[in-house]
Design goal:
By secondary structure, this protein is an alpha+beta fold. The chain has 17 helices and nine strands. The strands form three sheets. It has a four-stranded antiparallel sheet with strand order 1-2-3-4, with helices on one face. Strands 7-8-9 form a three-stranded antiparallel sheet. A two-stranded antiparallel sheet has the order 5-6.
């Protein structure tokens, strides 16, 4: 019974009071002859990896960031440090990026990267680590080698398109962006940005390929059958993509403020900015919603919208189910993003029936993008041959 002290890693000590069961973590460091300490509460899972019994990457990142803050407060360089030439593990790199990127996103001078971009970068990095057969203890420079990145890209291309594979490995550039490198350096980490491999045109999305009538019939039958499913969220999520051309990634964020009723307009409008095109066209989509679809939204998600929640609950799970179901029902077993075909169908149909300007307004994409990836500009509805000059009979 009493107080016990345990050093978890250099500079980090855990003080445990066995009589009360309380636990306190103390950080300590010496900077230019001045000792700095900090008491903090950290959950046990942040301290020790229960599998390896070693300090976690999160703990190392937390401690290193604190040492960096102490150095700035001291107003002098840390000088020689035991971390001065340390190559971080991939786990330490990920944990540190999460900390510094989150802090930057909350800084009014930056506000970028967004929380969503941070999460995507970390998820994609983790996927690259798994594809490469590595674990969190692997030195980061092993993951960032050009040869390793090329190997990851090639493996990914065995089951997904080149553009999708590139989106995964390009996250390694996000995690080693210029603004991060100085921060890593100040924390005593030596991180070299990756030199991305040349993959030619493989990272470009394929041009639009019109579905056959047989494929369209299968998709229509599958979509109709969704209405009878017990989980109505499946039908609603598919309808938002199919009827309004909203990317699944944007369906995640739709809330009540994205559904607007204007005076003297009989329709409720969907109003939002597609996340993917914020850095390019940054167009604002403002599109009327058919009454039948609005009724579906109110029936399935009305309470969630009133409570300020997102339109769909567990969106990732919903679209995982939709993709799996659509692949099986529509003969799309090899398609990575089956549900995305609903968006293409929607944009293509609007372009044919209402023109390219309407398709641009609905999708939020540039005209060039519509022509290349969402529709065939040479195949339009209602085209008939016209007489340019009078042709006398012979």
């Amino acid at each position: 019974m009493g107080v016990t002290l345990k050093t978890v890693m250099p500079g980090v000590t855990v003080r445990t009071n066995s009589s009360t069961g309380s636990r306190t973590v103390r950080f300590a460091c010496m900077i230019n002859g001045v000792r700095h300490t900090k008491m903090c509460d950290l959950p046990i899972e942040i301290l020790i990896d229960q599998r390896t019994k070693r300090p976690t990457a999160e703990l190392r990142a937390e401690y290193n960031l604190w040492v960096d803050e102490c150095s700035k407060e001291d107003g002098r360089a840390i000088g020689s440090s035991r971390y001065s030439s340390k190559i971080p593990t991939v786990g330490e790199l990920a944990a540190t990026y999460k900390r510094i990127a989150t802090a930057r996103s909350q800084d009014p001078n930056y506000r970028k990267p967004s929380e969503r971009a941070i999460q995507t970068a970390l998820q994609n990095m983790q996927h690259c680590i798994e594809v490469a057969g590595m674990d969190e203890q692997t030195p980061a420079n092993e993951l960032l080698r050009t040869e390793t990145i090329r190997m990851i890209f090639n493996k990914l291309c065995e089951r997904i398109s080149g553009i999708s594979a590139w989106s995964y490995i390009s996250s390694l550039q996000s995690i080693t962006a210029n603004w991060t490198l100085e921060k890593y350096k100040s924390l005593g980490y030596r991180v070299e940005p990756p030199v991305m491999p040349d993959v030619g045109n493989a990272k470009r999305a394929p041009e639009y390929k019109m579905l056959s009538q047989e494929q369209k019939d299968k998709i229509e039958a599958w979509y109709t059958a969704l209405a009878a499913e017990d989980d109505k969220q499946l039908y609603l999520a598919a309808s938002i993509v199919a009827q309004l051309a909203v990317r699944p990634s944007d369906v995640v964020t739709l809330k009540s403020e994205n559904f607007v009723r204007y005076p003297d307009d009989e329709y409720v409008h969907l109003v939002y900015r597609p996340h993917k095109t914020i850095e390019s066209s940054n167009r604002r989509v403002d599109w009327p919603i058919r009454p039948a679809l609005w009724d579906l939204i109110c029936t399935v998600a009305g309470d969630r919208l009133k409570e300020g929640k997102t339109l769909i609950k567990g969106t990732r799970t919903v679209f995982d189910k939709l993709n799996k179901s659509m692949r099986k029902a529509c003969g799309m077993e090899t398609w990575n993003k089956a549900v995305y075909e609903l968006r293409k169908l929607c944009v293509d149909t609007v372009r044919r029936e209402q023109g390219v300007d309407a398709a641009v307004a609905l999708s939020g994409d540039r005209r060039e993008t519509i022509d290349r990836y969402y529709s065939d500009p040479y195949k339009l509805t209602g085209i008939t041959p016209i007489e340019i000059m009078a042709m006398p009979a012979i």
